[in-house]
Amino acid sequence: MKRQSLIYSMSIPKSSPSNPDGDPQGRANQKLRTRQALIDAAIALRDEGHHPTVAQVAERAMVSRATAYRYFPSTEALISEMAADREMKPLDSFWQPGDDPVKGIGLAANALNTLLIDDEIGLHVMERSFMSVWLDSETHEPLRPGRRMSYIEPIVDSLKGVLTPRARKRLRQALSIVIGTEALIAVRDISGASVEESLDTAAWAAKALVRQALAEEEQARQKRK
């Protein structure tokens, strides 16, 4: 299936602490910036007509080859990540603040999961890359780019006037389970769902979680009366 390339810039914290070595969050942010710099370099090289290797991407990003290979053990892993970054639709192309959050999260789940499952081999390569990086890390800090959260967080944040901070946090966490690589691998490989069933099930689960959070808040509000 030929995809239409849509440039999507992943949101990554820009600030850097004065002493990142003593700050776990600072180290995690720096690693995310390094990962994104490698992806951006790969996209730039591809746009110039090249078929970049990890070594070429490292040189363009001004990162050592050893560091680049820690993030992307193979060219296939890098290409899969690059494709996801290029083609992920901006949230505002299908949902705006004020729109129905239940419908919005269903559309978001379908948009990201469709992108991932369109290249199922790439989906597994991407997951293997994440696992390899985590296993090779001494600290085992999470290094996933967290693309799903760029969809989940704005939709959940639109419920600030309805859900408590605790309820919104739990909803964000729950939604991260049903959207993304792990969700698709589970429903495809473990439950034996077809591609269509996988997409439908994930969108259904995401919408069900939002509905449940809203229902629980309404029940709590009625008890407070």
Describe this structure in words.
The protein has 225 residues and is mainly α. It has 2 domains: 10-73, Arc Repressor Mutant, subunit A (Orthogonal Bundle); 88-224, no CATH class. It is 67% helix and 0% strand. It has 10 helices and no strands. Helix 2 (54-61) packs across helix 3 (65-71). It is globular, with a radius of gyration of 19 Å. The chain starts with 23 loop residues before the first helix and ends with a helix. The model is unreliable at 1-20 (pLDDT under 50).
Largest sheet: none
Q: How many discrete structural domains?
A: 2
**What is the chain-wise order of helices and strands?**
HHHHHHHHHH
Low-confidence stretches: 1-20
Oligomer: single chain
Let me know the average pLDDT. 81
The whole-angstrom Rg is: 19 Å
Number of strands: 0
Measured by DSSP, the beta-strand proportion falls in: under 5%
Distance between the termini: 54 Å
Number of helices: 10
Keywords for this structure?
mainly alpha; 10 helices; 225 residues; disordered N terminus; Arc Repressor Mutant, subunit A; globular
Architecture blueprint of SSEs:
Blueprint: H1 24-47, H2 54-61, H3 65-71, H4 75-87, H5 101-117, H6 120-136, H7 147-157, H8 165-178, H9 181-190, H10 195-224
Write a compact overview of the structure shown.
By secondary structure, this protein is mainly alpha-helical. The protein contains 10 helices and no strands.
